[in-house]
Amino acid sequence: MKDTVDIDIQVRYAETDQMGVAYYANYLIWFEVGRSEFCRQRGFRYADLEASGYKLVVSDVSCRYRNSARYDEIVIVRTRLKGVHKRMITFEYQVLRKGQEEVIAEGETRHICVDSKGKTKSLPEKFLICLSG
Amino acid sequence: MKDTVDIDIQVRYAETDQMGVAYYANYLIWFEVGRSEFCRQRGFRYADLEASGYKLVVSDVSCRYRNSARYDEIVIVRTRLKGVHKRMITFEYQVLRKGQEEVIAEGETRHICVDSKGKTKSLPEKFLICLSG
Amino acid sequence: MKDTVDIDIQVRYAETDQMGVAYYANYLIWFEVGRSEFCRQRGFRYADLEASGYKLVVSDVSCRYRNSARYDEIVIVRTRLKGVHKRMITFEYQVLRKGQEEVIAEGETRHICVDSKGKTKSLPEKFLICLSG
Amino acid sequence: MKDTVDIDIQVRYAETDQMGVAYYANYLIWFEVGRSEFCRQRGFRYADLEASGYKLVVSDVSCRYRNSARYDEIVIVRTRLKGVHKRMITFEYQVLRKGQEEVIAEGETRHICVDSKGKTKSLPEKFLICLSG
Question: What is the ipTM of this complex?
Fold first, then answer.
């Protein structure tokens, strides 16, 4: 199994700002699209995890911007599971310019698994197995 | 009691697009900020209404854009209750350039009151009384 | 040539609100994605129009919400050119639940063509011809 | 002169997600609101800097989420200039629950000064002096 999952995103006009490039906060939205797709490719929908009474709450995010993305261009969000501990999951992302494979940005998100009351919990075994591929 | 409620909004960089003005969908967010403030000035928080097990679901929106708003400028969102029927509420909005009172945009939202199961309900009396001022 | 153009959009977590459905302003972003795709299918990119020194400024928008869209589900945005006059263009949209073809929302946007100085202009012939199919 | 600048932000409904709290990417928008206010309190508008032909491009961002913010509550964004070198500026932020001074999130953004052609440049002296207070 490939350890990265790719998804294409076409930059929306709404995502640009007056500098003429995608506004920096949108990369975090794209990371989320990337990890949703990662879960899907690994056999479950993130929505299923929530339906089971669990949530993955973001505890940390970082992003380094190397270049910028413009309206209408297609970027690839490449997601990799960096680490998985029972109660904490770390994803890594690259945002690439499609066709050129130039890295526009790269980042990381860390998540904590909580139950419906907000208590830290171990991620249920079946999701752990899926994620780890 | 004044029949309109004003709130200032300073245009965020995030809200601009590559035309250099506030992106059109943001006006609907500003309308929401306006009606939240309208409720607050009328004596309740919209969050209280949701806590009581009711929601106001948007059924219709329209907006006419007469001019544009730029980064960092302050606009006034002026909200008025256009009509209130037991199960339907209509708000009217004007977005004005602060200081000049120039109308940048104007619009309307219509809302239906539903309970936690999504059934159409009458808005509870106490909220109706508040809204009607 | 078909007179409507479809594009799939998968609802992002970022697009949901605390009601658990896609927030109403996002439909206007989806309309924009729909008309970008409409232009593309008709032979030009909206970015080309801007590169030629023209812009399509939104003057009016309306949307009727019939139902709601949830995280992760795929909606179809179906765009149709309702009317094209030299200086004004009207698009119509339907947002459909994929697979079920249920109409979740429908709306309309009206646009005015302006040049780089913001003066109202006729849309250049070549774009008019493309749009009209 | 105080070395931090505070600004209040009231959480918008649009900013919540289906977890019922402010979506994580919005904190980056709040950081931007914080640093706009920081510049204003230091004697210039970020828009003036762009009008002078310069831009501050974000090169890095990080955020640690300690707690969450809910619809309608007021958070304080507290911004501090962490470091300023001629071509690079670092801001630090805290997001606090108003009234309780509880830290909800904290983060950092790094910016590079570029001219209108995208070349790295020293930030003009007058802005440097303002920023440094």
Answer: 0.96
